[in-house]
Amino acid sequence: MIVPVILCGGSGTRLWPVSRESYPKQFLPLAGEKSLLQATVGRLKGLDGVLPPLLMANDQHRFLVAEQIRALGSGQLGILLEPLARSTAPAVACAALHLLPRYPEALLLVMPADHTMADIAGFQRAVRRGVPLARSGAMVTFGILPDRPEIGYGYIRRGSPLAGEEANPDGDDTSDGMPVFAVDRFVEKPDLDNARRFLAAGDHYWNSGMFLFRADRYLEELERFVPAIPAACRLALAGGGEDPDFLRLERDAFAASPTDSIDYAVMERTERGVVIPIDVGWNDVGSWSSLWTKGGRDADDNVIVGDVVEKDVAGCYLRSEGKLLTAVGIRDQAVVVTPDAVFVSTMDRVQEVKDIVARLKAAGRREAVIHRTAFRPWGSFETLNAAHRFQVKRITVRPGASL
Fold first, then answer.
1. Nearest alpha-carbon partner for 13 in 358, 275, 323
2. Residues of the chain with pLDDT under 50
3. What pLDDT shows up at residue 374?
4. Distance separating alpha carbons of residues 345 and 356, to the nearest angstrom
């Protein structure tokens, strides 16, 4: 059986001011009517042998996760709450340790909650291709075929192709025409010259951050390479608290874990790594330029979202979350408006918004962290005005809920 482990952490600062620490991008409908998290869960529909997901979430987002999954009506195996960020390797270790007693032969399908895909059927074919490999002990990752020289992603360089019994360990024909390669090495985010060279060579794929492996195999590899991670996670689970909705990891024990990604902790070191190349219209929604790249551009190469009126504008991403946004005569810019902030940048420098967020946080500006609207288990409240010794808020209570 497959247990999806969906990673819901992350602050999404590169999509500020729409995405903020208290309400990051994975909970926002940035590429459709559903949030990115809900779209990730929906991507699993139709896959055989897949259980409801286990969600790894930041403690401060627990009610957002629970409410969005409830709205889907799809259910979940549980929500594990991380008291602080320790990257993906400890998060998935806690998931594996939590699941193994109930599902000793579980395959973990690790998926970030903040990506998009256009070809769901292609993704599901790749997962089915990876199942017998993972069942036999391989550490499977999915590499994205690059369509441009991208410096914002890490890369995976493929090694030799797998063949025969190695490629189909169960002895059945599950290949569906999809090749599988040994992982030669993981590559850090390159400069532009190297990114162009990788694209021309054709043997490098973008690192999607998605994995498929046996829970017990993942823990075995962690014990080999970074034993402090599973040790800390066992203590965090043993000392944690559980209620009907959440399982909380014990803070001090989890804080003792090294901060490490699955890539660094395991995939760069294991001899069992394999990569399945996929071309499924993948996007990590990592910047305003990525939303422009994959968005439905008009005849002037603009992506326009919300209440926007423009004239003689080309190559721009224009988004308003409420107020009327107007623009005249601009080229290759991103302009994003929310009720309490405006972001403007040339398209080639949108990644630097994270530096703006860092400056706002250093100055103690609330706009760096929270929106005017804050969400609670019972509903939400919007701060209309605030000054010395007074606040004015609009409170919205969900039907049947109470403060």
1. 358
2. none
3. 77
4. 11
